[in-house]
Amino acid sequence: MTQLGLVRGKHVAVKGTDRLVDVFLGIPFAKPPLGAGRFSPPQPAEPWKGVKDATAFPPMCLQELERTDLMKNTLDGKQQLFPISEDCLYLNIYTPTSRQKKDKLPVMFWIHGGSLAIGSASSQDGSPLSAYEDIVVVLVQYRLGIQGFLSTGDELAPGNWGFLDLVAALQWVQGNIAHFGGDPGSVTISGQSAGGAAVSLLVLSPLTKGLFHRAISQSGVSILPGMLTNNPFPIFQTIAQVFGCEGSSSAILIQCLRNKDNMIFTRNLSSLPLIPMTVDGVFLLKLPEKMFSENEFPRVPYLLGVNNHEFGWSIPLGIPPELIHLAADVYIGNQTDPLAIQNAALDIFGDMFILQSLKFSEDLRDSGVPVYFYEFQHRPSAFDKIKPAYVRADHSAELPFIWGGPFMTDEGSMLAFPDSTEEEKQLSRAMMRYWANFIRTGDPNGEGLPNWPLFDQSESYLEFNLTLKIRRKLKEDKMGFWRKFIHEKVKPYVEGKKAHVEL
């Protein structure tokens, strides 16, 4: 049951254990953001009569249909797509069937990735983690793209709607998760890619005080250049014009966009700029760098890391090509071999991305936060079906291991890994245990696991491969180049682009 009414879920089995999981799909945590609710904060869900069926996946939030093809490159080419709807603010909950009424199990609150533009909660299956590690897994959906982040830059529509959805979902967890065996006093917010960036902003937001107790960001933090803006109005104007809205005032343009048929937002919008997150004075009061310098955030334990070939296959959205040209001399130099040039170019994307996670980790560490850092290196054997041999552990490659892909009963699930080797099963179990230990206590270490040291001044981290190793100072030489390059080239470039747009 929930505070709003009764729900009926289903039992799910997991490979390798006789423990069952109770699954509740499509639990509403807010009203559908329709009509005047578009480009507005989420409102509490309304109660229902009778028993709500919670055995079917909810629709995905509105997103560009062409971009959803990116979702099939995670493991072996499988793609799970669901109907799309503006009515999409739902949770999927996985909890051990064996739980008792008195149980207070730790809670993992997961935010999916997808550049804040695509994705769904149903792309992950929480049953193996719940069954093997005795935790409650909550997967959340939030508004994406234009619906999730468009801002007028004033009080009419300040933006960050998708993040406000996440806050509303965390508030729902506080009031309801005990009914599912979860402990509202032990909630870990976690996410990958854009979901990891969202986690890092939730940590900094004044709206989330007391709503969570630990944080995990996989391959994504909030300090990538260009991800945040203090002046969203020029982008808002551009988007309004593309959708046929005319006028000079925010009120006229936002009302015009509210009146548009929702399916117009699912067409190919690749010609438009990515919608940046906004310093809106509500969800986010200041830029993250300023909040770090002023120590204005809670000190919750933090686990984060990267993959060793983040963009060995897919290219990240939103990185200006001019910046790639600036770094090419260092990475490519006088090389003439096409494959060497290709690999060097892909490393430019990946290393620029990795630096941001390292810098964020250093800022956390220097502020007194316990930090655990990792690099994932294993190339999944399933890659042989869809990716060339030069691709190593690229963006999202760690997901099937953390989520227990080898143990998923539903082999059609996007992260299911039925053909995993025995060594890959062992790697998956180790990563599941590390993550669950952190979710329970804020420390990933536990009996039978190699020690994972804190990320301190020695910059120690754990390297995940078929053999686990402790390393120090990840990519020290390349990171030294990027630190200087970001300061001398990237920041002036980004600021110059902002100034140009504002003109």
From TrEMBL:
Start and end residues of each Carboxylesterase type B domain: 2-317, 327-482
MF GO annotations: hydrolase activity
SUPFAM superfamilies assigned: alpha/beta-Hydrolases
Pfam families named among the record's database cross-references: COesterase
Entry's EC annotation: 3.1.1.-
Domain of life of the organism encoding this protein: Eukaryota
Alphabetical keyword list: Hydrolase
Root EC class: hydrolase
Family per record: Belongs to the type-B carboxylesterase/lipase family.
Protein name (Swiss-Prot/TrEMBL): Carboxylic ester hydrolase
Organism: Monodelphis domestica (Gray short-tailed opossum)
